[in-house]
Specification:
By secondary structure, the chain is of the alpha+beta class. Helix content is 23%, strand content 31%. The chain has a domain of 74 residues: 2-Layer Sandwich (hypothetical protein PF0899 fold). The protein has a three-stranded mixed sheet with strand order 2-1-6, with helices on one face.
Length: 117
């Protein structure tokens, strides 16, 4: 249930960057290794955004697959939870991608000019 705290952090960050404007959408990249359920994240985002300038905003998750690299030079996309190199069967591997949770963009409403022309 860490999606609740992640959603709160996303809302807090969006509000800080929106500078008092209504937020329309937030696009986030979620790495496969983060073990975040996108539907649960969206559900909690809707709840924690109530009563804020993020209320009604669309949360748009993008999923990033996990990519690993072995000391032997082999790189691959992780298809199952085994961290052994498919080439040499070694375990000296490093995560290249898929462990991020990043806000990519925040769309806000334009400020309206109410001054007479």
């Amino acid at each position: 249930m860490h999606e609740l705290s992640l959603s709160q952090a996303i809302v807090d960050s969006a509000l800080a960057h929106a500078q008092g404007r209504r937020v329309r959408s937030v696009t986030v990249t979620i790495g496969a290794l983060r073990q975040v359920v996108p539907d649960s994240l969206a559900f909690h985002f809707e709840i924690v955004s109530r009563g804020t300038l993020c209320e009604g905003a669309l949360l748009q998750p993008r999923l990033a697959p996990a990519r690993l690299r072995c000391a032997c030079g082999e790189e691959w996309e992780l298809a199952e939870l085994t961290f052994r190199c498919p080439c040499c069967r070694g375990a000296d591997v490093a995560v290249r991608d898929g462990d991020q949770l990043r806000i990519d963009s925040i769309e806000v409403e334009e400020a309206r000019c109410i001054a007479p022309r």
